[in-house]
Sequence to fold (194 residues):
Amino acid sequence: MTTVKVFKPEIVELLAQVEKRFGKTLSTPSDYYELSIALLQIKQSVSVATLKRLWGYVGDVHQPRLATLDALACYIGHNNFEVFCSWLKSNTGFDSSAFLTEHMSVSELNAGDEIEIGWAPNRIIRLQYLGDALFKVLDSQNSKLQEGDCFVTGGFVLKQPLVLPYLLRNGIHTPAYIAGKNGGLTLLKRNEHD
Fold:
């Protein structure tokens, strides 16, 4: 059984491209069922349970099989996942570029500072900066993030998604997490610790 590390940016982009072709964000059990049926229509078989694990709908740390990634790549018009990755590397739409927007780097923060971030439709998270790029969730409204979750990031950028390689929940590393996948962060506020 061949596996691919779930934290690869190529996988994150593959999932985004699948949702783009599917026409909506996968967020309910019926969405995963509908995508599984859509895959069958192009002679690709991926179970609803596998799709839920891959998108992080259910908490499971299994790595995606290459066959699963190949099926999703076929769904968006590529022969397999390797061809999709080659396409990503050669596609100028994914080239790096500078942009000007509000941002917050950990170098601007002091241990104990509190941060509020939010994203559509109504997610608001209050974080505490613990130092060494480590943040702890103090309060979570309408999000899968839970009070006590911790994560590492170098900073936050308004209007861009927050991509985290994992969450530390009850001492266990969870799969990758993306906050604000559609539209990015809409709230970025700092409350300094006295």
